[in-house]
Design brief:
The complex is a heterodimer of chains A (about 230) and B (about 230). By secondary structure, chain A is of the alpha/beta class. In chain A, helix 3 crosses helix 4 and helix 5 packs parallel to helix 6. At the A-B interface, helix 3 and helix 4 of A face helix 1 and helix 5 of B.
């Protein structure tokens, strides 16, 4: 794969739920290693966009491709390159953190999963409680575990829905090497934090009712413009 | 830096199966509910029929209606943890073949049905069954339970795969599963009847063949359709 190939390309991307257009003709191109931050009020289509890019939802119309693969026809090709962090941890409450990660590692075919799992639990400060069942975890611990799950297979592309929610400042620092800019991965982040989101964005997308209101390089966008989206 | 290689169907199915059995071992809800349902239903039949013992067609009917309704409980619960905790998304995000989920879910349901089938047969023989089947008849009954449970597991997983995508999932399970299970129920009750009769009979192979054909057809249908059902 050529390194100059865009990581994400959307062209007239539409996703409908019945009659309602949750995404209404999104056009964007994101280069490899870049970060797109998506802003917009609740129901604007941020989560839907992430779920379409994660291959969990099919586009109703238009085109979307990741790392050169058309999501409609070749979604299976890129799944191993996607790390998705949504509102749910996607971990089972009656399994321990280690068991959950082992399960996901097997589904992704991670080689030497034990070493990778221990490294991630250590990194996120969950190592001591890795043998406890997840249902007893606080929301912050669950979010850290979900981040471990999302990056377990070392994906090229991270799709992150409010990744730092429920995390205290210390935890934010712990997960930074995994999901921050330093990780060197292409990222699409849904955020409600204008200043924080803008600080890590290369490209900013503003959505309202599924439609693009703002699509600009981050250096040309102000926090006031983002604030306008929520009024 | 760890590397990854997409898992084979077998490898992914083993991972899901291990997870399913671990979850049931930790919180044994499905098996307990199915077993309790069977025991309660036999007691209800005992009083409803006004008999201490049943045999032949009635025995066969009571046993299989009870097992089928108990199976509906298992089918209804087969994707509950995945739906409530996002496990289905977790699976769909992985580069694992979707068939692995069908294989693992159907195998899990089959294991549960076999355990409940064994338990129910013992309780049924103690509480209601008049004649005492010989060892060869128990063996034939075991073969019938295996074939019928395989069919129920395949149809059940297919229906559960449809139901999980709908809001009326609890209704869909019963509404779709029971009509599809009618041919299986006819075959297995007819085949069981002579085995549960006074004097004892032998297994009618044509019913056994029908069960085998049913399993084959629904196995192929499930294999062909399951990917489309679980994906958006």
């Amino acid at each position: 794969m050529a390194s100059t190939e865009p990581a994400v390309v959307c062209s007239g991307l539409v996703r409908r739920y019945g009659e309602r257009r949750a995404l209404d003709g999104i056009d964007l191109t994101l280069g490899q290693g870049q970060t797109l931050v998506v802003f917009g009020p609740n129901g604007a289509g941020k989560t839907t966009l992430l779920r379409v890019l994660a291959t969990l939802l099919r586009p109703s119309d238009g085109e979307a491709s990741l790392l050169g693969s058309d999501l409609r026809k070749e979604g299976w090709k890129v799944r191993s390159q996607i790390g998705f962090l949504g509102h749910q941890s996607l971990c089972y409450g009656d399994l321990t953190a280690r068991e959950n990660l082992r399960y996901h590692a097997r589904l992704h075919g991670v080689e030497d999963p034990a070493a990778r799992i221990e490294a991630l639990l250590e990194q996120t400060g969950l190592s001591d409680r890795g043998d406890e069942r997840v249902f007893g975890y606080s929301r912050g611990m669950l979010q850290r575990l979900a981040i471990c799950r999302a990056v377990l297979h070392e994906p090229q592309l991270l799709l992150l829905d409010e990744p730092r929610s429920n995390l205290d400042p210390a935890a934010v620092e712990q997960v930074e090497p995994l999901i921050g800019a330093a990780a060197g991965r292409t990222r699409v982040i849904a955020s409600h934090d204008p200043a924080g989101g803008l600080a890590e964005a290369d490209l900013v997308l503003g959505l309202r009712d599924g439609a693009t209101i703002l699509l600009e390089p981050a250096e040309q966008v102000t926090t006031e413009q983002i604030g306008e989206l929520y009024r | 830096m760890s590397t990854t290689r997409p898992p084979s169907t077998l490898s992914a199915a083993r991972a899901v199966l291990y997870k399913e059995l671990t979850l049931e071992r930790r919180a044994p809800q499905t098996l307990t509910a199915m077993a309790l349902f069977c025991a309660s239903t036999f007691v209800i039949f005992h009083f409803a029929l006004g008999r201490n013992e049943v045999e032949g067609a009635i025995a066969s009917g009571v046993l299989w209606v009870t097992l089928t309704l108990a199976a509906l409980l298992g089918i209804g619960r087969s994707f509950v943890a995945d739906r409530e905790e996002g496990g289905l998304d977790g699976f769909l995000l992985a580069p694992a073949p979707r068939t692995a989920l069908l294989v693992a879910k159907a195998t899990t349901l089959l294991i549960f049905l076999l355990i409940v089938g064994f338990f129910a047969s013992v309780i049924f023989s103690v509480l209601l069954l008049g004649p005492t089947p010989k060892a060869s008849q128990w063996a034939s009954l075991a073969l019938l339970i295996l074939l019928a449970d395989l069919g129920i597991a395949l149809v059940g997983t297919l229906i559960a795969g449809i139901a999980i995508q709908t809001r009326a999932r609890d209704l869909i399970t019963s509404i779709l599963a029971l009509p599809l299970l009618i041919p299986l129920l006819i075959a297995v009750t007819k085949a069981s009847e002579p085995l549960l009769s006074v004097g004892g009979g032998t297994l009618a192979w044509r019913w056994l063949a029908l069960l085998g054909l049913y399993d084959l057809i629904f196995g192929l249908l499930a294999y062909a359709l399951f990917d489309y059902l679980v994906e958006d």
